[in-house]
Specification:
The chain is α/β, with parallel strands linked by helices and 178 residues long. The chain has one domain: 3-Layer(aba) Sandwich (Rossmann fold), CATH 3.40.50.150. The chain has four helices and nine strands. The strands form two sheets. Strands 3-2-1-6-7-9-8 form a seven-stranded mixed sheet. β4 and β5 form a beta hairpin. The longest helix is centred in the middle third of the chain and has 11 residues. The protein is globular.
């Protein structure tokens, strides 16, 4: 496979990575690939590190989406495209604002916030999205506490329900066959 081991860095804007194909919806941030991940037609070629890389189903081992998904209006289509771009067993690494954090809604370009149940439809309820061949499995999930949250002596369940205690979630979704 020519793309074996490749990483796709979605929303690379201020987070350009030398070890990844950097993709962004904006053409003014120096991305390797200017693309709207929710309006992707798989195919084509991207120039990366003086070589041409085909964009194909199963072509990436890893997708990074740090502080990206909260900006995407058609998240189901974007997640479907990410699933399709990943190789079997490939991982999608995600950081998103937690629903009760200050940062969840301060940015006027955010269209959603996330909580621990935000991944249910991409994993266990994949059938609802029409996903018949592949789905995701939550391989890892943890929370970044705010400075306020770090001062609280509460269990995780209570922290998750306390406004402003959790800033964000880090999730790793793994592509698996249905």
């Amino acid at each position: 496979m020519p793309n074996a081991g490749l990483t796709l860095n979605l929303g690379s804007g201020k987070d350009y990575r030398d070890d990844a194909i950097n993709a962004d919806i904006r053409s003014d941030v120096g991305a390797d690939w200017v693309v709207d991940i929710s309006d992707l037609h798989i195919g084509g070629i991207v120039k990366w590190k003086e070589q041409f890389v085909p964009i194909k189903r199963g072509g990436f081992e890893r997708i990074i989406a740090f502080d990206v998904l909260e900006h995407i209006p058609n998240l189901v289509k974007a997640m479907t495209n990410c699933r399709d771009l990943l190789a079997d067993g490939g991982e999608m690494h995600i950081v998103v604002p937690y629903e009760l954090s200050l940062g969840a809604w301060q940015d006027p370009t955010h269209v959603r916030a996330f909580n621990e149940n935000s991944w249910v439809y991409y994993c266990g309820w994949h059938w609802y999205l029409g996903w018949k061949d592949y789905r995701f499995d939550v391989a890892h999930l943890d929370y970044k506490l705010s400075e306020y949250g770090k001062t609280l002596e509460l269990g995780l369940d209570e922290l998750l329900r306390t406004p402003r205690a959790v800033d964000s979630m880090y999730v790793v979704l793994r592509k698996i066959p249905v």
